[in-house]
Amino acid sequence: MNKKQLSGLLASSFLVSSGALLMPQMVSAHGSMEVPVSRGLSCFNEGPETLKSAACEAAAATSGKQMLYDWPGVSQLPNGNHQAFVPDGQLCGGGRSDYAGLNLPRTDWATTPIAPDANGNFEFIFNGTAPHQTRDWQLFVTRDGWNPNTALKWADLEKFCTLGNLPVDSNKRYKLQCKLPAKKGQHIIYLVWQRSDSAEAFYSCSDVNFTGGVSTFKELGQIRSAQDLSANTKVTFRLFDQDGRDLESTSTTLGFDSFTGLQTNLAANWPYTLAQQVNSVSKYVSIGVLQSNNTINPVKSTQDNRVYNRSGLAVSYQIDIAAPGGATPTPVPTPTPTAKPSASPTPTPTATPTPTATPTATPVPPTTSPAATCAPAWNTATTYAAPNTKVSYNGRLYSNKWWTAGEVPTASGQWGVWKDLGICK
Predict the structure, then answer these.
(1) Which InterPro entries match (predicted)?
(2) Which CATH class is domain 364-425?
(3) What's the rounded Cα separation, in Å, for the pair 216 and 213?
(4) What are the extents of the domains in the chain?
(5) pLDDT reported for residue 151
(6) Strand partners, 138
């Protein structure tokens, strides 16, 4: 987010009405495919400032990192005439120069394995950051024999699903049930979402691998790792039912595993370690990569492991990361973008110092103050929609200044999203 946009956010007021937080929307922030994950959202989930994949680095080098922060905004005003507004070779970026990096013809984009259920259906999930009334949803897939080394063209696509207006759930997700075409191997799923209350439409490319099998699992999302964690960090996978009640909680403490010789706190290893632990005990979900024989195998990767629901229940998950010495997070479900922020504690007035008061031995920066207690641990998969939401990270307490997701808490100064509130006690 550039300084001009950030100044606008800081100048905007946040209002609470009937218990709901009303926030200014990001520019063109309306939505993108989440399952299977779109290119823009996948790169955002890597962390725009900590990109690890070559494809996302190349995309950012082409169009800048701002498009990754604005991942839900790949849009035009075509009023249904999409090919007139989105030229060949520019489909993934919606015909916009500021998203041109998403058009790069590469074979190393993050890829989602997909397979139909026993009835031939697949549930696509669209993350609608700003829900709208819909004229239609259109889903396309690349034709057999398409060339992944050339930028995507309309002639490369065949439509396989059209849906009308759909309800959005409480987490601002649209569920799109479609018959999955009979394909094998690497392809692109292209989505067009045309509003009925506006000429505006949104576009996304999701790179997929058709496994060739049938699946009894439904993907819930990815396990993303942005960085190595400290030894003795405790990582907890928490599963909730549709009402936010706890179903399961599975934890592992990271470090050197003397039995396997694996350094489990490394960025590519801790999702693998957590997945193995969850898979050994969970009644409801499995974590890993979907295989053609309908099994889920964990892999050592910062982005390839996914959470799969095998229970048939409506469930959601959250990952809590507690640094060594940090407080255990209070069990709470993942907050939705409309959650009302917790009231900030009233600071205790400090006594007026006497002229002979002894100064503190170690000076503290003026923007940082000691924290009384630790908040729940920061979670890379959580969207912190409400400003002044407190999280703990590496033994320190932080609060966000505005909407954020996937940005590691640091003392980031005037233009950073996180404010350092001091050491957790």
Answers:
(1) CBM5/12, CBM_sf_5/12, Cellulose/chitin-bd_N, GbpA_2, GlcNAc_Chitin_IntDeg, Ig_E-set
(2) mainly beta
(3) 10
(4) 24-215, 222-322, 364-425
(5) 96
(6) 162, 192
Report which of 392, 397, 361, 364 is spatially closest to residue 376, judged by C-alpha positions: 392
Task: Report yes or no: 257 and 346 within 8 Å, Cβ to Cβ.
Answer: no
- Bridge partners of 384, per DSSP, are 404
For residue 61, give Cα distances in angstroms to 34, 66, 98, 103, 261.
23, 11, 11, 13, 37
Which sign, positive or negative, has the C-alpha torsion 35, 41, 43, 49?
A: negative
Q: Which fold has domain 24-215?
A: Coagulation Factor XIII; Chain A, domain 1 (2.70.50)
Q: How far apart are the first and last CA of the chain?
A: 33
What one-letter code names the amino acid at 196?
Answer: S
Q: What's the topology of domain 222-322?
A: Alpha-Beta Plaits (3.30.70)
Q: CA-to-CA distance for 8 and 237, rounded, in angstroms?
A: 36
Domains 24-215 and 222-322 share a fold: no
Residue 383 to residue 385: CA distance in whole angstroms = 6
Residue 228: pLDDT above 60? yes
One DSSP character per residue, 48-92 reads TTS--SHHHHHHHHHH-THHHHTGGG-EE--TT-HHHHS-TT-TT
154-181 per-position pLDDT tens digit: 999 999 999 999 999 888 999 999 999 9
CB atoms within 10 A of CB 214: 14
DSSP result, 194-249: EESSSS-EEEEEEEEEE-SS--S-EEEEE----S---TT-EEEEEEE-TTS-EEEE
pLDDT of residue 420: 82
CA angle 202/48/229 to nearest 5° reads 130
